[in-house]
Amino acid sequence: MSEIKRKGRTIHLECVDSTNTYLKNLSIAGEADFYDCVIADTQTGGRGRLGRSFASNKGKGIYLSYLMNPKDASAEELSRITAWGAVAVRDALKETCGLDVGIKWVNDLVYEGRKVCGILTEMTFGLENGKVHSVIMGIGINVNHDEADFPEELRAVATSVKIIGGREWDISELADNLILRLDAINDDFPKSKEYYLAEYRRSCAVIGKKIRIIKGDAERCGTALDIDENFGLVVAFDDGKTETVTDGDVSVRGFYGYI
Ligand code: BTN
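A: This is the predicted complex of the input protein with biotin.
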């Protein structure tokens, strides 16, 4: 796997339940440092947002978690780092595979309406001071998956770099490129916001589209207008109200499907 020289460790595991859980436990035990990254060939319990699972076929994708330095920022400020991560994945896919993917607010990378990558950022808090103790950004990219590798129910909404580009890719090369970009985020957060915000806006695949905002059993329809200064999604709802959606617990869907 990775031979690149970095500030942190790159811990390679053949199989783990979840790289996020593994790195979180290391961090809680005081055995992980900022810039450390865990990457696995497969996960038996890969986790996604909103309690979903993340399929992690062996040797086919990138399943990695990265320990970001919270730098005394608030949990609200730090939650925006997921959007920075989405820009890093987009840039890595562009540079390594020549692929132009879009970003579906807030944390999915998409190509022609299908998901190629998901990001799950999790935080732990210090009991005594309530401050953010660790920020773990978990990234899953479908790289060399064929259609048949996805479970039946995901085939209409998932894709891979191989399916898009028509050839296999070197997983370590793409992972190395991405990890260096995550190192840059760790160095530059929050001062380089201008670049990440501009690139996020430019790549946002939902702007101008009719969307559904789903929270639990409730659903509201509207049109996505813009990304605000804090990476919130500005929506003109069909009831006439314009609001900015920032809630990490919502799902955004296209009017007729995934996006
Ligand atoms: C989502 O699509 O909702 C987010 C998916 C995040 C998956 C990655 S794979 C590496 C890391 N470990 C996990 O258990 N989840 C993240």
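The chain has a mean pLDDT of 94. The pocket of biotin is lined by residues 18-20, 43, 46-49, 52, 54, 63-65, 118-120, 138-140 (CB under 6 Å).
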